Amino acid sequence: RKEVEQDPGPFNVPEGATVAFNCTYSNSASQSFFWYRQDCRKEPKLLMSVYSSGNEDGRFTAQLNRASQYISLLIRDSKLSDSATYLCVVNRDYGQNFVFGPGTRLSVLP
Amino acid sequence: GAVVSQHPSWVICKSGTSVKIECRSLDFQATTMFWYRQFPKQSLMLMATSNEGSKATYEQGVEKDKFLINHASLTLSTLTVTSAHPEDSSFYICSAPPGVATYEQYFGPGTRLTVT
User: Fold this and answer.
1) From CA B90, how far away is CA B2, in angstroms rounded?
2) Residue B101: which pLDDT band, with cuts at 50, 70 and 90?
3) Which chain B residues are closer than 8 Å to A43 by Cβ?
């Protein structure tokens, strides 16, 4: 089983749609969780950290369920500029090593 | 915010030659840096952890004699791909945490290596 798994995608949605991405992780000792976005041929950029209490940043909402080892990202009112690959990232144990999920590609269509 | 640079941004080399990629933290010191590799349509895979003043730690399956890592200073780590082959063609990305007590990472812009 992979350490971090994500919806396989791709997701093709119209502008204005709400889209949700799911992620599961296998290492119960993982301590920190993030969503990154990666544009084609670019480095990943931090979208948001994910906390147990859930957190929201504008149109983006992230949730963490430690018991189920599950992370989600909700994007409301999708924009064309949201088109990218969304990477679920989990740290390993107590270190700073990141484990990246395979990514889910989102295409927002006009 | 913290910035990490990489050089070169892209490189084409012939099979059998060696290529050096630099990763620099521009406005902070990094005792640890990470090197990732990303093949087309795949996610980033951690190759190794570069430690200033000590040997790098390699992930399982990554040949340490082929991918030489040198953390020369608190702001510079280099990855040398020795005797490159076409299957080494990939996008190489480094990252660095801005401190020891943080889980944040700052990523370099990546280096695209093509081996012909």
Assistant:
1) 25
2) low
3) 93, 107-110
